[in-house]
Design brief:
This protein is mainly alpha-helical and 165 residues long. Helix content is 38%, strand content 5%.
């Protein structure tokens, strides 16, 4: 009985939190430059903890369609530490954690005298933590519209910039 109540409360909290996070924000006044309109799109999908063969094993038809019509990684060698936030931000920037600044999901920075905590929205929205240039910022700097959903660093203006969507 206690587990059922806990699960129901956890589910209700999770859905309420997710509902707040899924509101689409659009930066007005941006459009692709004419030069960028003819370039191919990049869709980067990461499913944290998703083993290499899960799409085939569980017949994830939409993921398989993306892979069949585009490209997919045959494998991944994670950066160290091999945890979510450092690795996702490494994929977005092409930098190792020691160079982009997100060195763990939760860590203390002696210079800032502050904790970064992936579950603390106030901290994850502070651009002081994010070094490098993530893919969406690079695209926007080149006048190509970018969109992202729930990617590490996407909820803060990195280099003063959000993605358009």
């Amino acid at each position: 009985m206690k587990k059922s109540i806990f699960f129901a409360l956890f589910l209700a909290y999770s859905l309420a939190t997710l509902a707040q996070d899924t509101i689409q924000h659009i930066v007005p006044g941006r459009k692709n430059s004419a030069e960028q309109e003819n370039k191919p799109y990049v869709i980067l999908i990461s499913a944290d903890g998703f083993r290499y063969n899960f799409a085939e094993q569980y017949k994830a038809e939409h993921l398989l369609a993306f892979a069949n019509e585009g490209v997919k990684a045959s494998s991944m060698i994670p950066s160290f530490p091999s945890t979510t936030y450092p690795n996702h931000y490494a994929m977005a920037t092409g930098l190792y954690p020691a160079h982009h600044g997100i060195v763990q999901n939760i860590f203390y920075d002696r210079t800032l005298k502050r904790y970064y905590n992936s579950s603390n929205r106030k901290e994850t929205e502070d651009s002081v933590w994010y070094g490098g240039t993530p893919l969406w910022v690079l695209a926007e700097q080149q006048h190509m519209l970018a969109a992202n959903f729930y990617w590490v660093g996407s909820n803060t203006p990195i280099k003063g910039m959000y993605s358009t969507y």
